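Q: Convert this sequence to structure tokens.
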Amino acid sequence: MAGFIQIIEFTTSRPEEVQALGDEYRAARIASGDKLPVQRGTFTADKDRPNTYLNIVEFASYDDAMANSKHPATGEFAQKMAVLCDGPARFYNLDVREVWTPGA
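A:
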């Protein structure tokens, strides 16, 4: 099974602004004709740790994820997001080994 997942963990008291920034980032990339290599993104809130959020971003490959990370718009997004966060983000880079569904 091929695939790559990047998880970005961060803390903020301004999650709505982070989410809006992500919406703007994606809209601007699409409007520019730039095809996002992301297959799926999920923005989550940790129920056990207040003000802690994880952004789970799925890619077809590690190479796609690294190309996305190197894109100038992604760097600009990261700088703006850092201003909204209470500290540095923590990144988890994960090769997908298996995806399963109950009953499948």
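Residues 15-31 form the longest helix (17 residues).
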